Amino acid sequence: DLLCERLENKTHCIAKRMAVLTSGGDSSGMNPAIRSFARQAMLKGAKVFAVREGYNGLVNDSIVPLNWGSVAGIISRGGTIIGTARSTEFRTREGRKKAVFNLVKNRIDNLLVIGGDGSLTGANLLRTEWCSLLKELVDDGKLSLDVMEHFPMLSIAGIVGSIDNDMCGTDLTVGADTATRRILEAIDSILSTAVSHQRSFVIEVMGRNCGWLALASGVATGADYILIPESPPEDGWEQTMADNLEKGRLSGRRCSLVIVSEGAIDRQGKPITSAYVRQFLEDKGHDARITILGHVQRGGTPTFLDRYIATRMGIDAANYFYDSTAEQLNQPVLIGMSGMDTIRSPLMECVQKTQSIASLIKERRFNEVVDVRGGMFKEFYEIFIACSNLHRRKVESKGMGVLILHSGGPSPGMNPCVRAFTRLGIDHGYTMYGCFNGFGGLALGEIEQLQWMTVNGWSVMGGAELGTNRSIPNDSNIEDIIATLERYKINAILMFGGFNGYLGIAKLYEYREKYQQLKRISIIGAPGTIANNVPGTNISIGSDTSLNNTLDALDKIKQSAVASRRLFVVEVMGAHCGYLAAMSSLTSGAERSYIMEKGITLNTLTKDLDMFVERFKREHRIGLIIKSELASNTYSTHFIYSLFKEEGKHLFDVRESILGHLQQGGSPSAIDRIFSTRLMNHYYQFLEKDLKEHGHLQMNGCIGFIDGGIHYTSMPDMIEEMSDKFRRPRSQWWMDLVETSQNISVFPLDDPSS
Ligand code: ATP
């Protein structure tokens, strides 16, 4: 009872004291997690500390208070500002006793650990030994008896910082997306030279126990062969690899790419090195070159997604320490991601499941490994096998035509999507068609059959090889559209595009009443737009690339203002939807975002002006407002710029910047590449199910990413969800984040950390 009472006291304490540490290998995104955790905790009333250099800081009492300003300007920085280390002393009970002493000395009993499975195991050990170590310290006379009463337990939250994406309990670990980006930058550059010289490249990427980086980059670059620890190749793989590379050459590929995980092994558990792979290929007459990417994969500015997940996880960790019951605080949690939302799982269950994979690999129980890694890993592995040139199986034709077209603005990810659409479709026995220039092209019969090699190399390409436009079916072209569909014997249409495309498929569906022929055709929409303004999905392919482009530009803009008091008003795309503005604000640390959903009033502008005046009076050097292009019909970007410039003169300077089409261009990001393939994989799963259940294709609606999975929404539900007037979904999951973003970015007038 006494313990319960003490725990209750701990739960209800407002001025909690909590610390954050980063441990093990660093990863890009640790800083945004530190920033959001510290600020959210301060806003809730906590006193926040940083433990420097991992567990060494606990052992040596290198524990320093953080304030609002000490985590300013770090959201775009790789690595960790508080340092990380591997501590031998902490592995000993004596070391952990010192850690307990130092925590109690600083009156800290909530600890956020950002690190890998080793670091999280260490945190749990400290938690379980807490009471006994306290007792020893009391017995040693180092602490007085009442500490037992005041610090009944240590609460632990864990965030996985690891480039390997190797932890159960989260879709993604902090740092994995940035590492994949670094790998893709390197491979995309290598591919252009490899194509010129018809060379074979062997690329070694990190991942001692986990092949995620090799797998994700293999899917994203359309590699010929990957070697990962989870699935060692069958004996004799060397010859199979060489034969397949040769087959690819003969069918028209000008370069070959083999990606080797640093932990790759054969079925006997013997390491497979990249040098061995290259030598083998050279012996077989290939002009083979090797590139070992090494530590470039760890570093650099965090991507949008790493900043996003780290920020959300950091906030959730602070909320966990504040909003949980005593019982919950006594159970350490792992804060992970499921889709775009955070989830909490029992920490040690996740750690143990993860560690069991290393044991399975050691015991060579390879059949179980990929399963334990989880659904997404397994799915990507299957997609890689199906889409790579190597493992093409002979499939009986279904005699059914499936057609893809784009509609709306071009979006990065369209080409990788068509590649996956084509190859996975062929793998299922469909006849594949691509339609050029959207519904307009469909009416004109601009169709081409897509063969396996038509889409060779498309996985890395930006833009839209099939073209896209904004026309939709109407009374003057519907009969031509139907004629084309009949001529090519199309059984299913997949529209991969934006809001206009969704209007287009809804219109086509409506025409079924008049034209019975349309009733035997499945009509499906899939999200391919940077704006993320379409129904039936939380995210659309293209928005990740666009946000990365925006953050690259914002980082440069912010740097240009170093040492000058300057406020930037930056306009981003998004049409009627504020997703790009809201997300770029959250991940760039902008103080304000203006979006159409919330509108802009003179009152808002006046308040914000006052806020910036106050801030710049306090020596603040830079301010950032992100405005969505259609946030207001009256208060344009230029108006806001002029207003702030006039009112802020003598105190700060104002600059206006319209980012424009750089947001739509460039090579698709890792996430847009691999998620478009995943979306296509599910498209065929839905078609197969439809065929099995009804004997013909009759699905109509859209598919999209919801709650970490891929879901189908029927056409009536899809139409219901769309607001024609505002050209966006009626309800948008991210709206609450606008306020959250501002809360953790604006220096409060009464500094909560003081
Ligand atoms: P990475 O994935 O980068 O290797 P990690 O967190 O798994 O990250 P480790 O070297 O395993 O890295 O652990 C980091 C630190 O955590 C160790 O130096 C040690 O201080 C502590 N630690 C790890 N495992 C334990 C353990 N079983 N008991 C106590 N402390 C541990």
Automatic annotation (TrEMBL):
Cofactor or coenzyme needed: Mg(2+)
Pathway: Carbohydrate degradation; glycolysis; D-glyceraldehyde 3-phosphate and glycerone phosphate from D-glucose: step 3/4
Annotated GO CC locations: 6-phosphofructokinase complex
Locations listed in the record: Cytoplasm
Principal EC category: transferase
InterPro entries: 6-Pfructokinase_euk, ATP_PFK, Phosphofructokinase_CS, Phosphofructokinase_dom, PKF_sf
GO biological process, one term: canonical glycolysis
GO function term, MF aspect, one: 6-phosphofructokinase activity
Keyword set, alphabetical order: Allosteric enzyme, ATP-binding, Cytoplasm, Glycolysis, Kinase, Magnesium, Metal-binding, Nucleotide-binding, Transferase
Enzyme Commission (EC) number: 2.7.1.11
Known catalytic reactions: beta-D-fructose 6-phosphate + ATP = beta-D-fructose 1,6-bisphosphate + ADP + H(+)
PROSITE patterns: PHOSPHOFRUCTOKINASE
Domain Phosphofructokinase intervals: 17-319, 402-686
Family under the similarity heading: Belongs to the phosphofructokinase type A (PFKA) family. ATP-dependent PFK group I subfamily. Eukaryotic two domain clade "E" sub-subfamily.
Protein name: 6-phosphofructokinase
